[in-house]
Amino acid sequence: MKKISIIIPLYNAENYISKCLDSIKNQTYKNFEIIVINDKSKDNSWGILNDYVSEHLNLNFIIINNEINLGLSKTRNKGIDLATGGYIIFMDNDDTLADALSLQYFIDQTDNDPDIILGKTRFLLNDVPKESNYHRLKNKKGTYTDNEILDGFFSGEWAVTAWNKLYKTAFLKNNNLKFLDDLLHEDELWAFETAIAAKKINFLQEETYVYYSMSNPNSMTATVGLKNIEHYLIILTKKLEMSTEKGLYCRSRFTENYLKNFANYTILRNVCKMDFGTFKSFYVKIEKEFDKSFPQKGLFRLHPVLAYYLYRMKFDKDFFLYGKFPKYVNPLLKI
C-alpha cells in the first residue's frame, strides 16, 4: 500500500484540531502518518494534541513542538523533511477531510503516476455551505500534462492553495519545492512553482476536503493591508523572474495575461484605495519589473497621476467617478 504523509501546522487551534484529526482517523484508507508541528501556539493546542495522541496509539503520529514561532512556510518545510510517505497532503488545522473515503479517492488516482492530484473542495462560510468560485475546479478533462498544466493554472482553473492536493513526495523533493521563508501568501508563489515543475496532474470528481472560513473569499471588498500588498509585490517580482528564466511565455499563451491580472487585481486594485504616494511607489515598481520581461509591450507606463485616477475609477467604490466610462478606462489600463 502507498503511504501518505499528512502535514498539519498547528497554531492556536484548540477548538478545531480534534475535529481535524477525527476526520483523518475515520478514513477507510489506513496507510498514513500524521505529522503535526505545533508552531508555538499561545492556547492549549499542544496539550490537546498530546492528549489526542495518547488516546489513539493505533495511529501513526509524528508530533513536533517548535521552540520558537517559525511561521507557516518553515513549519510546512519541516513537515516535508520529516515525511516518510510516498505522497504528501497538507491540511490546515481548522479544516477536515470531506468523508471517510477522501484518502482512498486520492490513492485510486495514482496509477498513472501524476505529480499532483487535485480534489474538490466543500466550502463552509460561518459553518454554512456556500458556493465558492475561487475554490471550484474548472478543469476541462481528468488529466493535464506539461503545457496544459500551465494553461489551466494561468486561466484560474484551480485555487492556489497547498491543501486538498496529493503531491508525490519525490516530485517535491527532486524539484526542491519548498515554501519561501517569512513570506505572507506563501501558497500563491508555491502553487506557481509546482505548476511550472509538474509533468502530469489528475483531477478528482469527488469532494475530498472541507474548508472552513469566517470570511468570504469571493468578496471584492475585503480589506488588504499594506504589508500584504508588499508581499504580493515580492511574489509578482519572483513570478516575472521565473517566467523569463523558465521560458513560460513560449510554453503558455496565457502567461502575460496571468501576470498582468495579478498586478492589476491583486496589487493595484487594493493600493489605489490608499494615498497617491503609496500608489505611485507600487505602480512605478511594477512598471520597472514588467519592463524587464515585456520591454516592447509598454505595460504600466501611464503617468502615475493618470493611472491613480483610472484605477480608482475602475476599483474604488468610494470614488465619485467609480464605474464611469469603462470603454475608455479599461483600454487605457489594458485590462
Automatic annotation (TrEMBL):
Residues covered by the Glycosyltransferase 2-like domain: 5-133
Database matches in InterPro entries: Glyco_trans_2-like, Nucleotide-diphossugar_trans
Entry keyword Transferase: yes
UniProt xrefs under CDD domains: Glyco_tranf_GTA_type
Keyword Zinc applies: no
GO molecular function: hexosyltransferase activity
One Pfam family, short name: Glycos_transf_2
SUPFAM superfamilies associated with the record: Nucleotide-diphospho-sugar transferases
Keywords, sorted A to Z: Transferase
Name of the protein described by the UniProt record: Glycosyltransferase involved in cell wall bisynthesis
